[in-house]
Amino acid sequence: xxxxxxxxxxxxxxxxxxxxxxxGSRIDTIPKVRTMMMPGVATDGAVYLFSYSxxxxxxxxxxxxxxxxxxxxxxxxxxxxxSGAEVATSPDARHIAYLSSPMMSHDIYGVIRSWPNxxxxxxxxxxxxxxxxxxxxxxxxxxANHAEFVxxxxxxxxxxxxxxxxxxxxxxVTLDPREMKVDSLPSQPEWGR
Length: 193
Description:
193 residues, mainly beta, five-stranded antiparallel β-sheet, 1 helix
């Protein structure tokens, strides 16, 4: 993999990666795809990932077959397209996790769907959206059975207050058995991407 920092001048920017796939003695770079998160690899060897534009906006879901070198687009659930979310694929490519904030709402929550069929598997509690720090919200897979979300809640901001918000929601979802642990943190955890 190689990476580039993309974004508009003055913007924080996003790091986008090109993905290389090794099959036997052959190394291929997946064409036309730059992604933010590690891809997942299915039992049949297919690589599932999400492609982003140079500005960091989600373009499509993708399936790459290393045997045929075919790249196929996969339609993503509309709520992902609307929120421009960072989507994390589980290591076994069976699920995706992302933070959602529907356009008609000022809420944020974590979502896990089976992939690629998009069936809802789990959803964390809804929190008031804290918009100015959206880039600090994060999602990641700890392994194929555990996803982790952290997002800044607007709930801790008293009306008319000028102090900085300080409530972070931290949720861990275990797929089997289905369990969810949600707590709050006084500051953003240090996560490497």
